[in-house]
Amino acid sequence: MPIVQCVPNFSEGRDLEKIEKIVQPLRCKEGVKLLNYEGDKNYNRLVVTVIGEPKKVKDAVLESIGVAAELIDMNNHKGQHPRFGATDVCPFIPIKDMTMDDAINLARELGKEVSERYGIPVFLYENAATKPERENLATVRKGEYEGLDEKFSDSNWAPDFGEAKKHSTAGAIAIGARRPLIAYNINLDTKNIEIASKIAKTIRHSSGGYRFIKAGAVEVSERNMTQVTMNLTDYTKTSMYRAFEAVKMEARRYGVNVMGSEIVGICPMEALIDVSAYYLGLENFDLSNVLETNLME
């Protein structure tokens, strides 16, 4: 049976009651398994990971998008993460017995249903993009919610589904298909956001850094620190240990130390095996050496 992963991101990370209502349609559904959900107060963002049968996952996520549209008013939303919609992004990732084309078709089906049912304009991105300039999520989301009116005034930015007009409270949504990525943040022992921003600029691909790193900076005020926040879009080409060591090296330039790091959401075991092999100097070590892998066979 085909299996797809979906990682919708919602613009609510503080109100626990709202978070539970948004996640509820993903619980206890046949053919759908809720793997993880994490709300972040600084980002004011909820990252959810579900997996299961493609159509059933799509239908459950469609319901959650509707709940988010009812509960979240983007006119009042503030957070440190870029966003332009109540449900900001919704990527599909083929996991088993699915091709990328299958995931793209699923993204298009969901996009059409979201625009028709909720009146939210939809942009297709990454592998599902209809234009090269829409492949990069950062480009699609440029200007964020506050800039949507201006974006829609440009005929080049007509949505893939729905009217060229933002939803009055839910904004817009980017729906796509992609490979698995790792949301990875590295903590710095400084409150100076400019230092974190300079490090992020050095390592990210758009500024001349690593090909498969997207990076920015976030202030975590309650812990008196900042973060270099990253998406590793292909961990097989740019690994977590490479990103970690690059940030450590750049931090020394400013007399700053790395305090630790965190993975947001779900991470492929293969990526952690890669990190273990590097730091422990393991030879000829891969997934076949992992006990749990052999138990599943």
From TrEMBL:
Location within or outside the cell: Cytoplasm
GO cellular component: cytoplasm
Pathway: Amino-acid degradation; L-histidine degradation into L-glutamate; L-glutamate from N-formimidoyl-L-glutamate (transferase route): step 1/1
Enzymatic class: transferase
Chief location: cytoplasm
GO molecular function: folic acid binding; glutamate formimidoyltransferase activity; lyase activity
Residue ranges annotated for the Formiminotransferase C-terminal subdomain domain, each copy included: 180-294
InterPro entries in the cross-refs: Formiminotransferase_C (IPR013802), Formiminotransferase_C_sf (IPR037070), Formiminotransferase_cat (IPR004227), Formiminotransferase_N (IPR012886), Formiminotransferase_N_sf (IPR037064), FormiminoTrfase_cat_dom_sf (IPR022384), FTCD (IPR051623)
Pfam family, any one: FTCD
Domain Formiminotransferase N-terminal subdomain: 2-179
Signal sequence range: none
EC number(s) per entry: 2.1.2.5
GO BP, sorted A to Z: L-histidine catabolic process to glutamate and formamide; L-histidine catabolic process to glutamate and formate
Keywords from the UniProt entry: Cytoplasm, Folate-binding, Histidine metabolism, Lyase, Transferase
PANTHER family for the chain: FORMIMINOTRANSFERASE-CYCLODEAMINASE
Name this protein carries in UniProt: glutamate formimidoyltransferase
Organism: Romboutsia ilealis
